[in-house]
Amino acid sequence: METTSGIARRAWHLAEEGALDAAIVEYERALAVADERTDLWEIHGELGMVLAKARQFDRAIAHHRLAADAALQQGEDPYSHAVQVERYFTAVLLLEMGRPMDALEEIAEAVSSQLAQGYVLTAQAQALSALGDYDRARSAAVRALERAQSDKQRERIREQLRDILQRG
Predict the structure, then answer these.
(1) What is the pLDDT along the chain (168 residues), one digit of tens a residue?
(2) Which residue in 168, 128, 122 sits closest to 143, CA to CA?
(3) Are 84 and 105 in contact (CB under 8 A)?
(4) 63/94 same-domain check
(5) 4 and 67 inside one domain
(6) Sign of torsion, CA 60 87 102 144?
(7) Backbone angles phi, psi at 68, to 5 degrees
(8) Domain that holds residue 40
(9) Is position 81 within any domain?
(10) Domain total in the chain
(11) With helix as H, strand as E and coil as C, how does the chain read?
(12) Domain end: 28, 54, 76, which one?
């Protein structure tokens, strides 16, 4: 019998090759055979990314939320990288769907912490800007730059938030 991780690995390769529908089927198969030892955070998170590429946003959001829940159930802290990254991906999808208030709600807990990652604060800045709250958006953008974990990440954030940063 094939292992869950083997199925998920094949699904990832299919997604990288652009075979999104086949990858989705394989991820769903991996979830169907998963047991209590399976790292559901990774499988749900990867499936969420593939669904987003396939423009199935509602399903992608559901799997990113399941990934965050799985990470919490595996003992991750609500402010851990695992949980924050899934909340971030969910917020980005909500923003892409034109739902900035929902995006802010998704990341509210993370951004209220001193442990907020730069990428989460990037989503906050983008959501606030979409709502026309430019002063708070700029503050979030500055905080995102301060919280970046590397020069490369800082440059990526600066590029993403250029318009917001130049407003001030």
Answers:
(1) 788 999 999 999 999 999 999 999 999 999 999 887 788 999 999 999 999 999 999 999 999 999 999 999 999 999 999 999 999 999 999 999 999 999 999 999 999 988 899 999 999 999 999 999 999 999 999 999 999 999 999 999 999 999 999 986
(2) 122
(3) no
(4) no
(5) yes
(6) negative
(7) -60, -45
(8) 1-76
(9) no
(10) 2
(11) CCCHHHHHHHHHHHHHCCCHHHHHHHHHHHHHHCCCCCCHHHHHHHHHHHHHHCCCHHHHHHHHHHHHHHHHHCCCCCCCHHHHHHHHHHHHHHHHCCCHHHHHHHHHHHHCCCCCCHHHHHHHHHHHHHCCCHHHHHHHHHHHHHHCCCHHHHHHHHHHCHHHHHHC
(12) 76
Please state whether the predicted TM-score (pTM) of the whole model is above 0.85.
yes
Statement to judge: residues 41 and 100 lie in one domain = no
